[in-house]
Structure formats: structure tokens, C-alpha cells
Amino acid sequence: AMKINQDTVLRGKKVTLVPYTAAHVPRYHEWMQSEELQRLTASEPLSLEQEHEMQRSWQDDADKCTFIVLDSERWPGQAEENSMVGDVNLFLTNAKDPTVGEIEIMIAEPSCRGRGFGKEATLLMMAYGVRKLGIIKFEAKIGQENEASICMFKKLHFKEVAVNSIFQEVTLRLDVSDQERQWLLEQTNHMEEKSYTELKQPAGVLDT
Q1: 120 phi and psi, to 5 degrees?
Q2: Residues 84, 70: Cα–Cα separation, whole Å
Q3: Model pLDDT, residue 62
Q4: Which domains does the chain have, with CATH numbers?
Q5: Low-confidence ranges of the chain (pLDDT < 70)
Q6: What region holds the N-acetyltransferase domain (predicted)?
Q7: What are phi and psi of 43, to 5 degrees?
């Protein structure tokens, strides 16, 4: 079940991935008022209360793994809601094949786009999926107009396998061969996995 990541922090150079909690909802809700993000993520605007319900259901969902993407330069140090730049999700949508994960990345803060945040967040999530969740096939479904995202996934060795002209969506896929696995682990060998509870403790609390 996806409670697996509720105390997991994945720390990279540019971004740090933390579990999606109720504290992140107000900022997330703010982002999702943006028509551009609604279009790119094919989602409907929700009320704050609905967004809180959604967060709770995601937390308990057995086939969804969600992290909030924080700016590593800002956190720990600044409040999480001031360090949030986006989110990354892994959906285990294929009931017949638990080794398939559909990956989704959103860098919601415009000032943080084009800086490699999305790429690193995606790599950290993929490495986590391979090591912890037994994923060996990744899929990404991206709106045709979202060229930056399509281009990024291709750089991460994904191949375009289908185009759905009704949904205006491209499906990309990566099969994790031994060679790809090796590459992925090399790309993420700087990643540190930590405990969220410990990192959130204000300094000094642990010394008493």
C-alpha cells in the first residue's frame, strides 16, 4: 500500500521529495486555480475542502504514491509551503501487472521551470519505484501541447508508443532493462533517503 512512503524523504541536489500531507493542501489548492495547470494536468478546479478530501484519499490509496517536490535550497530551513515547487506521482494502474507504474510530474511554480527540477524529481521517483515498489515498466501520458514535458521524458530514455488524438495525449514508455536500471541508479546515486519525522523536528528537540 502507498502508506509505504508516508515517512520517506528523498533528497536530491535540486529537489527534495516529501510525502503529501494536509499541510501542503492550501498551497496545492492555490496552484490548481491556474487554468494553465488545469489544462496541463487535465483536472477540474476543486474547493479547498474537496482538495483536503482528495489528499486524505490519496494517502490511503493502495495504488498511488505521491510526493510533494520541494526546493532543496530552501528546505529544510524554510517552511515547507514556501519551498513547494510541484508534485510527482506514481500510479499502479494495471491490476494484472503490478510492475507497471504510470508517472506524472508537475512543476507548478513558474519560476522553477526549466531549471532541471522536474527531471531530478522524475529520476528520484523512478529510482524509488524500481528499488522499493518493484516497477520495471514506466508509462507517462502527456498532453500533446506539453512539448517541454515530452522532451524531458525522451531525454530520460522514454519512447513514444501511442498518440491518442481524442484526448490529445501522447503515451511514452520505458522498459527498465538491466542496462536502464544501472543508468537510473547512476543518475540518482546522490539521492539520500531520510525519515520525514526526523527532518521535520526543529533543531534542538532531539538533544533533550
Answers
A1: -65, -40
A2: 4
A3: 76
A4: 8-195 (3.40.630.30)
A5: 1-2, 201-208
A6: 15-159
A7: -125, 160
